[in-house]
Amino acid sequence: MTARIGVVTFPGSLDDRDTQRAIRLAGAEPVALWHKDKDLKQVDAVVLPGGFSYGDYLRAGAISRFSPVMETVIEQAKAGLPVLGICNGFQVLTEAHLLPGGMLGNDHLHFICRDQKLRVENADTAWTSDYEAGQEIFIPLKNMDGRYVADQYTLDKLEAEGRVAFRYLDFNPNGSLNDIAGITNEAGNVVGLMPHPEHAVEPLIGSGRTDGLPFFTSILKKLVNA
């Protein structure tokens, strides 16, 4: 039986179906999870997808963090459940304090949508093991509140511990400190990033590349070999 990966839908989620398709293409079984349900249906991992949950009111991800499903996600993530937050999902993870720092509006004050060059900085997490450290990839990016910020102590700690998972190359699209595009927790089971790997899983759509597919094959291999 293949791994089952849950995808949470919040009010305002946009990319939950795309994420389910990416999971299916990787060979796992996507499981739809609803924000009001605490039951994770015994999934092996969870993805918090992109979108504008609750219209980004207050702050992006601030309301979703208190959804019933997040109570269980937070508890199980702390116990080792693999969790990936994409764009709005990354924002939710910072609001839930599963990842440090926070997300602010882009420094140029505009929505941005582009294919973004990234460097893989950490290939040892549950979601990045099919990459190589130093590998350069292109992943679509689309956000309004994508500027990663943290105090200097937190930034230094992330850098020293190798917890910057992805870094923007050639162009910083939103003013993120240290060109940070994604980070991981200390255990490596929780990863968040602003770009959208689910839009780069087959040549016909998105960037025309499959640079995002290793996110989903990485977690599948980890779960199957566990």
From TrEMBL:
SUPFAM superfamilies (alphabetical): Class I glutamine amidotransferase-like
Entry-linked Gene3D superfamilies: 3.40.50.880
List of catalytic residues: C87, H196, E198
GO molecular function: ATP binding; glutaminase activity; phosphoribosylformylglycinamidine synthase activity
Pathways per UniProt: Purine metabolism; IMP biosynthesis via de novo pathway; 5-amino-1-(5-phospho-D-ribosyl)imidazole from N(2)-formyl-N(1)-(5-phospho-D-ribosyl)glycinamide: step 1/2
Keyword field: ATP-binding, Cytoplasm, Glutamine amidotransferase, Hydrolase, Ligase, Nucleotide-binding, Purine biosynthesis
One GO CC annotation: cytoplasm
Principal subcellular localization: cytoplasm
InterPro entries assigned: Class_I_gatase-like, PRibForGlyAmidine_synth_PurQ
GO BP terms, alphabetized: 'de novo' IMP biosynthetic process
NCBIfam families the UniProt entry points to: FGAM_synth_I, PRK03619.1
Xref: PANTHER family: PHOSPHORIBOSYLFORMYLGLYCINAMIDINE SYNTHASE SUBUNIT PURQ
Name this protein carries in UniProt: Phosphoribosylformylglycinamidine synthase subunit PurQ
Organism: Streptomyces regalis
